[in-house]
Amino acid sequence: MAQTRNSAPARLADQLERAFRGGAWHGPAVMELLSGMDAALAQWRPGARAQGPAHTIAEGVGHLAHVMEDARRQILGEPSPAPAAGAQWGPPELPSEEAWQALCAALEESHGRLRAAVLRLEESQLDLARSGSDTTVRGLLMGVLQHTAYHAGQMALVRQLGEAAQGSRP
To answer: pLDDT tier at 86 (50, 70, 90 boundaries)?
Structure first.
């Protein structure tokens, strides 16, 4: 069903788009942060920390794509495949610029598929409990929004540090 602009699913889809593409209140959206980034910067890893090395931007991009795809499957009631080792994070190494562009395209696709699934929801479906969880579909989507903003902030910091370390910061 096509949603009206003021329906709850349409408003949630709009917020997903703002956090992903731009117009978010929290600062730069994910794709704004990735704009103009090359594979070298996407793979730059901040120094070690007590819990181990911090994630690269490329790993964060893979992680966001995974989470968005998993949320889409949950909304549609599709089974999740058995997770492969490290599947929740992107590749530790990118062999080329083409691989980086393909990873960004996979993120775009995951976002688009999730947004389309949200726009197909009826308002009454937002308050349904998800299978095996006490969280509703609305709660899942709010979590995806929070998760996206969190990782956008991480990416902004890693990009700033990486540009400074690589000497390419304006």
So the answer is: low
How many domains does the structure of the chain reveal? 1
**Alpha-carbon gap, residue 59 to 50, rounded angstroms:** 19
Confidence label for 138 from pLDDT (cuts 50, 70 and 90): very high
Q: What does 101-135 look like in DSSP terms, one character per residue?
A: HHHHHHHHHHHHHHHHHHHT--GGGGGSBPTT-S-
List phi, psi (to 5°) of 129: -70, 145
CATH assignment at residue 69: 1.20.120.450
Q: Is residue 3 part of a domain?
A: no
Is the Cβ–Cβ distance between 19 and 149 less than 8 Å? yes
Work out the mean pLDDT of the chain and round it to a whole number.
89
pTM for the whole structure: 0.89
**Within a domain: residue 2?**
no
pLDDT at 87: 67
Q: What angle do CA 138, 145, 169 make, to 5 degrees?
A: 175
DSSP letter, residue 169: -
